[in-house]
Write a structure and sequence with these properties.
The protein has 5 helices and 12 strands. It is of the alpha+beta class. A two-stranded antiparallel ribbon has the order 1-2. One of its GO terms (molecular function) is RNA polymerase II cis-regulatory region sequence-specific DNA binding.
Length: 157
């Protein structure tokens, strides 16, 4: 369709003046929509409405296979692929350094750190750092679960 409204800062064109005005905020940094509960600000009302769900806990998008719920339809779509891959065995993400394959990109990213030694996950109770979320989660149990003892001595982390 015809797009008579043009941005003077880039090649963007819009069919409606209101859309152009919203676009112009990407250049000015204007963020008129503010959250009453935190410092979040945005240029789009729909983004503020979506953000407000983080405070209310509202998750209107529900998985029909498990108890997962999401604030956004896109997050539910990503989640649904985990079910498909679990049952199909599909592992589309491959490591360039070895034969490892993963069904989710985050699993491949965690795996890649076995080659680089990176440990981006840190414990907020001690100095422990981990290369994967699952390793950090296992470690976190050492702070909450009774630690094993040998002859009255605690085992180190």
């Amino acid at each position: 369709g015809e797009k008579p409204y043009a941005c003077h800062s880039c090649d963007y064109r819009a069919a409606h003046l209101a859309r152009l005005r919203t676009h112009l905020m990407t250049h000015t940094g204007d963020k008129p929509y503010a959250c009453d509960s935190c410092d979040y600000r945005t240029g789009k009302r729909c983004h503020l409405e979506r953000h407000m769900m983080t405070h209310s806990g509202e998750k209107p998008y529900a998985c029909n296979i498990c108890d997962y719920r999401a604030t956004q339809a896109g997050n539910l779509r990503v989640h649904m692929r985990t079910h498909t891959r679990t049952h199909s065995g599909e592992k589309p993400y491959a490591c360039d350094s070895c034969g490892y394959r993963a069904k989710q990109l985050r699993y491949l990213k965690d795996h890649m750190r076995t080659h680089t030694g990176g440990k981006p996950y840190s414990c907020n109770s001690c100095d422990y750092r981990a290369g994967s979320r699952s390793d950090l989660n296992k470690h976190m149990r050492t702070h909450t679960v009774e630690k094993p003892h040998i002859s009255g001595q605690e085992l180190p982390c």
